[in-house]
Structure prediction request, 187 residues.
Amino acid sequence: MSDVTRLLQMASTGDTAVSDQLLPLVYEELRRLAAAQMRRERGGQTIQPTALVHEAYLRLIGDEAAAWDHAGHFYAAAAEAMRRILIERARRKKRHRHGGGRRRLELDEALHLGMESDPTLVLAVHDALERLKQMDPRLYELVRLRCFAGMSLAEAAKVLDVSSRTLNRDWLVAKAWLRKELAADDE
Prediction:
């Protein structure tokens, strides 16, 4: 068992002293995830990757109900926490904008560019992902790992404990479904 996994399991039992030992071990990977998220964002963001890392880390370690099976599980949850933080920020921006214009964007481009901080598009993708989560949780997890955690299909297959071949098919299905959903939302 790696040091990270051992410390995560200790943290999930409520051991708050572990937090000081855990952060230095996971910080670089969390920083890489945050940098990947921020690269997808439009310039002029008011949140820095470091702040995104710290906010996500506090949410994850502060959640006493969380039980981490392994480091990959923790990093996937961190990527999700970062995504949710950016969604919350987009919602706040949308409220202040009073509408802002919508523009059409192909799914691959939107997922690759991280929706470029267009609050309307970020929320449309979020809503579509929530519907996908209800319909097929594994497809949702795959999209989350690929697009928000930056994992390759092989890495996602390992985390989801599914063959690469099955995950390749799932990836095609998920992209097609999301493309259809986003097109329907655009109308």
